[in-house]
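Figure 6 in text form: structure in, sequence out.
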């Protein structure tokens, strides 16, 4: 990775000329990634890094072109800049999520305020990276989101009135089915698997995100907060207890 990163840095000053949508195939066939980024310097650098990592990458420079490319390509993951020239990236995120709720969307944003990040996650993004970012960290985020996590069990997990079906990826609270984002589901499944026991932040980041994760763990806190809003009863104690300095515990009752 060090050699590949060094090569990308040497090409930072170059501009990649081409049509509004540039599509290339890496040396090794891999997952499809759509990059929606209007900055030529960032876009060309990320495209080379993605190709060098073996992904099939497509780069668009506007929100409208990004939506059209997503419909044509059916990507496995979208890297979406929120500061696009033609339309707000959050609107693009909502429309992409509306068409495919399971699509992994990673926001690229200079908006690092907590409210902006929460709005982006609520719009359908599964993760975010704030600019400026380190290339190695972004690639780690991509690997984490594309990693196919095998279900720990094909049997339903029942804790109290919450029933989680790993095989069908469905969650019911009583008779009502809950709508969870992919990482919310994975996080709930991991916590429920050890209900009644403490699960450290490091374990959650490793099992739910990536075994080589080295970035901020704030995304864990955002996902826990979002999960609580969906599974906790108003006015009742949270089903997920925060263990300061340790992690979280899913309560048995």
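Output sequence:
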């Amino acid at each position: 990775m060090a050699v590949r990163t060094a090569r990308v840095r040497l090409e930072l000053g170059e501009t990649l000329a081409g049509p509004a949508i540039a599509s290339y195939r890496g040396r090794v066939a891999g997952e499809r990634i759509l990059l929606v980024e209007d900055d030529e310097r960032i876009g060309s650098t990320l495209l080379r890094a993605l190709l060098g990592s073996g992904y099939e990458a497509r780069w668009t420079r506007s929100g409208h072109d990004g939506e059209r490319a997503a419909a044509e390509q059916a990507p496995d993951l979208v890297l979406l800049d929120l500061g696009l020239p033609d339309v707000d990236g959050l609107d693009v995120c909502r429309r992409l999520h509306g068409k495919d709720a399971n699509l992994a969307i990673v926001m690229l944003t200079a908006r690092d305020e907590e409210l902006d990040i929460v709005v982006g996650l609520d719009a359908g993004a599964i993760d975010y990276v704030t600019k400026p970012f380190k290339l190695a960290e972004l690639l780690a985020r991509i690997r984490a989101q594309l990693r196919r996590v095998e279900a720990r069990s094909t049997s339903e997990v029942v804790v109290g009135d919450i029933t989680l079906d790993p095989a069908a990826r469905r969650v019911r609270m009583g008779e009502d089915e809950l709508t969870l984002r992919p990482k919310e589901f994975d996080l709930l499944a991991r916590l429920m698997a050890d209900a009644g026991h403490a699960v450290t932040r490091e374990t959650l980041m490793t099992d739910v995100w990536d075994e080589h994760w080295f970035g901020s763990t704030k995304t864990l806190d955002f996902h826990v907060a979002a999960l609580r809003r969906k599974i906790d009863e108003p006015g009742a104690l949270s089903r997920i207890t925060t263990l300061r300095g340790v992690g979280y515990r899913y309560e048995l009752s």
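Caption detail: The domain at 2-146 is CATH 3.40.50.2300 (Rossmann fold).
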